[in-house]
Amino acid sequence: MMKLDGLEALVAVAEAGSISAAARRLGLAKSVVSDRLAELERTVGARLVQRTTRALALTADGDALIVRARSILREVSDAQAEVVERRGSLAGPLRLAGPISFGALHLGPAIYRFLALHPEIQLTLDLDDRFVDAAGDGYDAVIRHGPITDERLIVRHLASSRRLLVASPAYLEQRGWPRTLAELDRISAILYTNRDADWRFPDASGTMIVRPSACLRVNNGLVMRDAALAGLGVTLLPTFFIHRDLADGSLVHVDVGVEAEGATIHVAYPANRSPSAKLAALVAWLRTEFGTPAYWDVDLS
């Protein structure tokens, strides 16, 4: 008979990419995870993981079993959580993914307060700016700023943010202050590489698109902010990155007469299963913590 700990080991190895990483995720010794996986293979009479010197990959049998394994583990977890929730508390594992910088600045602090109120929840938070496969990688939900187009996911609004052009006072004193969209052609721009480099500004006739000349392209919002603080150029960032720098004057809003398209923070979860009570409670908590309008925009008013 298959054991749950063997199925758990298989899922962890498949998602983490190695036995060592799976052991760290499960809080177990590497030898324990390896033994559980080997026992599962003996039980089903098939090799489930192909081991090479560089990587691990599921075999065809492993691919077939892991779908059922995830479903079984989720059913067990949900059943355990339901029993606890009937007693009026929230409990059990919850796995989330989110962007690195927003996670460090805003998501993490809000979650810490939530977990202090619900100590029986075991939350795993993976911060990564790549667009993880929420449906396939075993996440209960993902949090992202920007569009989510995966039709396998239910997407819900979590918070909004203005997006402002900013630069350091020193840069503007040296290079001059652009006052119109046309004058953005002469600036040095700090651009984000993970999406289109276009800067989009809605107006009465539609959307004006500016394609500035880049002095730096980088895939991290905090590095973009730091580059602007260093006087490197003008950048376009959500206010959740820069509200404190604007408040203390270390960055200045470059007002060109029209404001760029805003940013939206979403939470998304697989469409083939209903969100658990603990996920619903966390989403409601985050909406309250961030506020409407969000506190990073209120700080600028």
Main attributes?
five-stranded mixed sheet; D-Maltodextrin-Binding Protein, domain 2; LysR-type_TF_proteobact-type; LysR family transcriptional regulator; Arc Repressor Mutant, subunit A; 3 domains; elongated; transcription; WH-like_DNA-bd_sf; alpha/beta; 301 residues
How large is the radius of gyration?
A: 23 Å
**What is the count of distinct domains?**
3
The residue fraction in helices comes out at 40-55%
The secondary-structure element order is HHHEEHEHEEEEHEEEEHEHEEHH
- The CATH class name of the largest domain reads Alpha Beta
List segments where confidence is low: pLDDT < 50 over at least 5 consecutive residues.
none
Number of strands: 14
- Order of neighbouring strands in the sheet with most strands: 4-3-5-14-6
Mean pLDDT: 87
| Main sheet makeup | 5 strands, mixed
CATH fold-type name of the largest domain: D-Maltodextrin-Binding Protein, domain 2
Strand content: 15-25%
Q: Would you kindly provide a written description of the structure presented here, covering whatever features stand out?
A:
The chain contains ten helices and 14 strands. The protein has a five-stranded mixed beta sheet. The mean pLDDT is 87. 41% of the residues lie in helices and 24% in strands. The chain has three domains: 1-88, Arc Repressor Mutant, subunit A; 89-158 and 263-301, D-Maltodextrin-Binding Protein, domain 2, CATH 3.40.190.10; 163-261, Periplasmic binding protein-like II (D-Maltodextrin-Binding Protein, domain 2, 3-Layer(aba) Sandwich), CATH 3.40.190.10. The protein is α/β, with parallel strands linked by helices. It has helices at residues 4-16, 19-26, 30-44, 60-85, 100-117, 169-175, 221-229, 239-248, 277-290, 295-298; strands at residues 49-51, 56-58, 92-98, 121-127, 141-145, 153-161, 163-167, 189-192, 199-203, 206-210, 214-218, 234-238, 252-253, 263-270.
